[in-house]
């Protein structure tokens, strides 16, 4: 059934790196574009891009969220791109496709999914954040600042339409549970959870009248696959303006890099560096982790853009700060807090080493 509402779906995957885990080859982007173009009228519009070794399919349509048609299209597109990656012997071809066959919804099958359905406003600015070498919890800090921190978002204080605050849906990735917080009333309670960003992630944010304002990818591949399969390199969609945070309020948390987990071997803490798409190839120690922000104006579902928002020299200082922090962390080498605690490490020799050392441990006594 044709709906009046528009759905914005961002589905992403790493289906092969060029070179190593650093980038996506143009041949894959081209293949993905062709696949989405061939879909004809299923999509209203689409844009294919990449951040580091991850490819994002940004699609608008009228099928609603969790549409089998759209998910199948994304899956088939990634499969087609994997074939190209295999032919070119690109690195880790098909890395994020955890299953051989599509089963109705790409959730749980490897690709990351962020989708929202809404009535397009008279003018509809949206920002799509795409990160590489980090995990979904990376959005907790900026999302809290954007939608709950009056020192970041002036509108929370001075825009009557935002003064009531927002609703936050938080997911517990270990227990597979969700909880809704109402802010600012539960300001301190939510922080107890989302400060532990490896476990609790903000899935979505709503206005107090129930309008969707933001949605992120929350799957953790390593938890799903039970073995190392790379970090999840999340995406985040945020709607802007007219009663929602302004574009500049949405970008402001990135003016000073925060620390996220990921980087080399998905096992290190480091700064999240805001970059333009052209600067999104992580090379130093496979990083540092980075984030690209693409702005679009929707026009009857058409994607007018992208505006590459972190290309602004106003973010040069954030980049310098990130590089200074990167130097600082790198000096620690294999020591925490650069290296993640053992239970968070994706590559770990711990079981093997402990097996070898087991018999050499003696009681210390009193
Ligand atoms: C992190 C990442 C890279 C790889 C590293 C080793 O998410 O993708 O840092 O972990 O390059 O990769 P392999 O084990 O494929 O040689
Ligand atoms: Mg990769
Ligand atoms: Mg990646």
Give an overview in words.
It is built from nine helices and 15 strands. The chain is globular. It is α+β, with helices and mostly antiparallel strands and 366 residues long. The protein folds into two domains: 1-119, 2-Layer Sandwich (Alpha-Beta Plaits), CATH 3.30.70; 120-353, no CATH class. The protein has helices at 26-38, 68-87, 140-148, 155-158, 187-194, 221-225, 247-251, 316-331, 350-357, and strands spanning 6-13, 45-51, 54-61, 112-118, 124-132, 166-172, 177-183, 200-207, 212-216, 235-239, 259-262, 268-271, 273-274, 290-299, 302-308. A hairpin with a 4-residue loop joins strand 6 and strand 7 (177-183). Residues 14, 17, 21, 53, 92, 95, 230 line the site of one magnesium ion.
In percent, how much strand structure appears in the residues? 25-35%
SSE string: EHEEHEEHHEEHEEHEHEEEEEHH
* Low-confidence spans: none
In round numbers, the mean pLDDT is: 94
Shape: globular
| Class per helix and strand makeup | alpha+beta
Number of domains: 2
> What small molecules does this complex bind?
fructose -6-phosphate, magnesium ion
**What is the helix content?**
10-25%
Radius of gyration, in angstroms, nearest whole number:
21 Å
How many DSSP E strands?
15
Largest sheet: 9 strands, mixed
Total of helices: 9
What distance separates the N and C termini? 73 Å
